[in-house]
């Protein structure tokens, strides 16, 4: 079953481009670790609030990466520009 990991985060408006570049580097690094990340989506709520949704082929694939990725320098760099990150995980039940 596919799993969604949603991160609601805050970034200073003047650092949005930096966040986007660091996020892209993080996605590239994670995809180098696993085939389990199937797609990512980023939405802007307002000037400083973003929703970042990563879709995983399974909970196991997410768990495997989540166990090691936070220690990666690229992950630490990505989250260094973020405030108030709130992470939620969902099992994808229906898709039409």
From TrEMBL:
InterPro entries in the record, alphabetically?
A: Dimeric_a/b-barrel
- By its UniProt entry, which SUPFAM superfamilies does this protein fall under? Dimeric alpha+beta barrel
In Swiss-Prot or TrEMBL terms, this protein is called Antibiotic biosynthesis monooxygenase
Species of origin? Kribbella lupini
């Amino acid at each position: 079953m596919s799993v969604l990991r949603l991160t609601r985060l805050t970034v200073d408006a003047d650092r949005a481009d930096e966040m986007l570049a660091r996020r892209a580097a993080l996605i590239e690094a994670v995809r180098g670790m696993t085939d389990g990340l199937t797609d990512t989506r980023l939405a802007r709520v307002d000037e400083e609030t973003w929703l970042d949704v990563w879709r995983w082929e399974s909970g196991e694939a997410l768990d495997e990466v989540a166990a090691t990725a936070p220690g990666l320098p690229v992950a630490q760099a990505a989250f260094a520009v973020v405030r108030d990150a709130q992470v939620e995980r969902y099992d994808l039940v229906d898709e039409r």
